[in-house]
# Entry
Amino acid sequence: MRLVLFDLDNTLVDRAEGFRRWAWEFCAEHHLTPGDADWLASADEDGLAPRDVFFKSVRDRFALRETGAELLESYRHRHPALIPAAPGVLAGLPRLRAAGWRIGVVTNGDAEQQLSTLLCTGVAGLVDGWAISGHEGVGKPDPRLFEIAAERCEAPLRDGWMVGDGAATDVAGGRAAGLHTVWIDRGRAWSGDEKAPDHVVADAAGALALLLE
# Structure
């Protein structure tokens, strides 16, 4: 039985596109400008900025009446509905399962929001299990999160694979868990700060094609 674990944001789903859609919607609702949408995208730091810090900055910059906590709660409910599955994923995952793979998702983030993303994008019904850091109390690159996902998929980690766009979280973390690694470069060059992954692809569709070879 072969196991592959995937990262979620900007791997199986296009979190960056979902954030752009949210930013435009937010700006329209609050009568802001296209330049403000660009500021939101920059301040978001590709999802790495802590959400409480980000929304405090948003509230202060635009002098909004809502509290940072209220803005964050609204975002957590709305953003998952705007995130699309990455191209090729909804068709490729069933092919991978049909080829005998067990498929899991290993993701850092808020438990409720990440689960909503899995459900809204349709990915949840195409995988065998998942482990979300906000629910499990441990996050990538800790090997334990990969182990939890493998247990949910009822498959051994041995000779399994990890696919994701994070050098430290997905590649280094996956390797520490004993997995082969595939890095989604998203147009970036490998920094050299971590040991290189086993394979480099442009996107999830490329990773799926590689695993199906």
The mean pLDDT is 96. DSSP finds ten helices and six strands in the chain. The two ends are 16 Å apart (CA to CA).
